[in-house]
């Protein structure tokens, strides 16, 4: 079985966002980066699937040189090799469509039986790229999957998806297909020391974004805006509890307008 995993290198959750360029760009000079958390569930499920059905696993990441850090972590977890789509020097614009288009060219070359993708990313939260890749590749996509059962020696799958009010949707699909796991599907492993050492020797192929993205982006960011600063909170002390409660209720009614 040929397995492909999509992974993104994203800003750390503790990153302080700063806008520059008159609202046109994000200042990334002080950013720290990490593997997109949802993608770790995709990596884990890929490894489990490979353990069961054998074959080869490939992780794909789009971005500048730092994206290779995410690829190396995936390789340390147990994936076989990586493909880095290098965006350095590319000025054509990178929306979800452009990223998916670039990845779809790798999919066409690799011809995977299954693609695992994160449910969404913590930086943009759109969750568009996985389904778009599936659409480009002409394969079905199963999203937010909480239970997975391979059938017919890995040629088809039965999947469950939890929806509102305790309802469970059950899907069946044949390979090739794309699956975006819910966090309940598995518990991602931590890379072992031997895995980290082996990852240093595993191959990462480089492809240029400019060679793969043959169309203009469909979405343009016009401006970035930070949310308005919140007024400092008020602390009540030094008075009888009854008086402080009365004052809080008054402020909730007159200022917060919640009662």
TrEMBL record:
<dbReference type="Pfam" id="PF01012">
    <property type="entry name" value="ETF"/>
</dbReference>
<protein>
    <recommendedName>
        <fullName>Electron transfer flavoprotein subunit beta</fullName>
    </recommendedName>
</protein>
<dbReference type="GO" id="GO:0009055">
    <property type="term" value="F:electron transfer activity"/>
</dbReference>
<dbReference type="InterPro" id="IPR033948">
    <property type="entry name" value="ETF_beta_N"/>
</dbReference>
<dbReference type="InterPro" id="IPR014729">
    <property type="entry name" value="Rossmann-like_a/b/a_fold"/>
</dbReference>
<feature type="domain" description="Electron transfer flavoprotein alpha/beta-subunit N-terminal">
    <location>
        <begin position="23"/>
        <end position="216"/>
    </location>
</feature>
<comment type="similarity">
    <text>Belongs to the ETF beta-subunit/FixA family.</text>
</comment>
<dbReference type="InterPro" id="IPR012255">
    <property type="entry name" value="ETF_b"/>
</dbReference>
<dbReference type="InterPro" id="IPR014730">
    <property type="entry name" value="ETF_a/b_N"/>
</dbReference>
<keyword id="KW-0813">Transport</keyword>
<keyword id="KW-0249">Electron transport</keyword>
């Amino acid at each position: 079985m040929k397995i492909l995993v999509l992974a993104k290198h994203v800003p750390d959750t503790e990153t302080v966002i700063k806008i520059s360029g008159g609202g046109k760009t994000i200042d990334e000079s002080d950013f720290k980066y990490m593997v997109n958390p949802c993608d770790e569930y995709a990596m884990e499920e890929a490894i489990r699937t490979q353990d069961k059905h054998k074959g080869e696993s490939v992780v794909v990441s789009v971005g500048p040189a730092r994206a290779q850090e995410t690829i190396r972590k995936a390789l340390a977890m147990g994936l076989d090799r990586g493909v880095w789509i290098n965006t350095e020097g590319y000025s054509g614009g990178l929306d979800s469509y452009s990223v998916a288009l670039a990845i779809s060219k790798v999919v066409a070359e690799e011809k995977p039986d299954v693609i695992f993708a994160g449910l969404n990313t913590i930086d943009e939260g759109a969750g568009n790229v996985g389904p778009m890749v599936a659409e480009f590749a002409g394969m079905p996509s199963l999203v937010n999957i909480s239970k997975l059962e391979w059938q017919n020696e890995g040629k088809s799958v039965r999947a469950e998806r939890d929806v509102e009010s305790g309802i469970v949707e059950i899907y069946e699909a044949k390979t090739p297909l794309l699956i975006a796991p819910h966090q309940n599907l598995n518990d991602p492993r931590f890379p072992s020391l031997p895995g980290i050492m082996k990852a240093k020797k595993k191959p990462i192929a480089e492809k240029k974004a400019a060679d793969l993205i043959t169309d203009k982006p469909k979405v343009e960011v016009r401006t970035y805006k930070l949310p308005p600063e919140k007024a400092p909170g008020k602390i009540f002390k030094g008075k009888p509890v009854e008086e402080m409660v009365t004052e809080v209720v008054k402020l909730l009614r007159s200022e917060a307008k919640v009662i």
